[in-house]
User: What shape does this take?
Amino acid sequence: MPFTASWHTLLDELEDLPDGATLITPLSHKRFRITDVQEHRVIIEFEDADEKRPLQRDQFETLYRRVSDEPEGFDLDRLPSDADPYPAVLSLHPRFEIDEDNGVIVKTEDPTSSQLLGSNSESTSEERTEPDLDIYADTLLLVDALERHDVATLDDMETDALVNLYTLLSDVQRNANEFRKNVADVLLNRLHHDRPVSGPYGSVQRTTRRNRTLKDEQEVLEILEEAGIDQQRVMSVDRNKIDEALEVTELSESDVYEIDEREYVRKAEVDEEVKQTRLQGLKEQLAATEGEEADQLRQEIEELEDRIDELTSFRTGTEIKE
Assistant: This one.
């Protein structure tokens, strides 16, 4: 199919987008909207930067040719960093699809999905769903505990309230770390070549951690000896052998160890039944919330979201001076 026909198909798809439809770039995951569709270009506006940019027809044609020449898909990493929106817009064409797991954009013979996130009208009508995650349940209980107690003055709190608070904090931390690892495993397949990817609350980057493990001890000693290094220079005290020696002598730990004892609080057990009872009560309370109370809650959430957005948004030095 010649590009002219594909271009007009794409323009038709763009014209049919609902108001407020949002797209997301496949590499940097920046959100943007189509603000104008013209014969030779498409105007987009990024959500977080209030920046408008024209996407030119000839650039789309170049991308179209490259994708068409690659049966297995065109590698998105080969695009210039500022060309990230082009594949997102091209994915609205029914014959082009982005495969983020493999980092490519592919031309297919069947209708495909796109980088379209949805519209404002659709998002407002969606019902909130309760995720079946331990972190969600424990976080809900923790929020309830924080709201019922004045945690600004911990010394004034009752002991049982402090115990509940510590238990919930411990559970949230454990479940959050586990869930964070699951999220990181999926993200790892979507990050390419140490290129930072941004979201509303921050950014992440693929990094490499280097771990070292010594080879067989005798092999290491022989290699060092051949290099002129005396074995005594690299020999160290083995703690396991020291502990074995203490058991068969009259020496005490303090004779060979610097001992620093510190007391700490450790969670002993969790009453899951009480947690589930309280959690169910909170869910029923949230489900029954309506009228002025619900409106007030939504307003508070919106204000909090605005505040978070203000704290996490990036402004250039020029914008701050203005």
